Amino acid sequence: MGNRFLKTIVGCSLVVLCTVSFAGAQGGQAPLAVPNPTYATIPLEITVNRPAAEVWKRVGKYCDIGEWLRVQCTITSGKDGEVGTVRSIGNEILVGKTELSYTYTQPVREGRPYNLYHGTLEARPVTATTSKLVYTLVYDNSMLADDAARERDKAQRTTQFTQALENMKILAEGGTLPPAPPRGNRGGGQPPATPPGNR
Fold first, then answer.
1. How far apart are the first and last CA of the chain?
2. Does residue 129 contact residue 50 with C-beta atoms inside 8 Å?
């Protein structure tokens, strides 16, 4: 009898505890900093006449971005290619990786709304001798003034990262990039000095 009573008490306690924990997880969260986010995605890809592993070896190291985005890049924390590594461009943190891909994000900055900016670069096999580079961006653009501003922002990012993919293709296929235009001259679709992330 006492044993059954004890089991009942323990069972009830666990149910109450689980219910309270579940309720806390569901309803006790702080409000969102951005109450109505609008997540924009920019999926880009380009065909490369080289096998995916060969492409990744040429342009897939975390600081290879310096070459194909035409900016200085150094590893400021961690080891190139390891999750948690930080590169100097945008203080970007490597948050995920596979054999032929990585995903990065940018940190929260003081005085700026966080837009959850993430980018994923992947070399995807197509045939034994060809592949495609896939670059996907996702971010919250709800803090921009209006639809027109959101469209301009998306178009600018699309131009910048399309050029980056074209540069990667040239390098992966054994070519050499033409000289970069002088800083401040964005002619020819070349990217700006730093990638747009949190604004």
1. 66
2. yes
For the record, the structure tokens of 83 come out as: 């999750």
CB 106 within 8 A of CB 117: yes
**What six digits make up the tokens of 66?**
């310096």
* pLDDT tens digits, one per residue of 127-175: 999 999 999 999 999 999 999 999 999 999 999 999 999 999 999 999 9
**Rounded Cα gap, residues 60 and 100, in angstroms:** 8
Torsion angle defined by CA atoms of residues 59, 60, 66 and 68, in that order, rounded to the nearest 10 degrees: 40
Q: What is the CATH number of domain 36-189?
A: 3.30.530.20
- Rounded CA-CA distance 160/69 in Å is 9
Structure-token pair, residue 86? 């930080």
Closest CA to 138 of 152, 120, 161, 112: 120
Q: Identity (one letter) of the amino acid at 5?
A: F
pTM (2 decimals)?
Answer: 0.77
Domain range list for the chain: 1-30, 36-189
Are 45 and 165 in contact by the 8 Å Cβ rule? The answer is: yes
The residues facing 122 across adjacent strands are: 101, 134
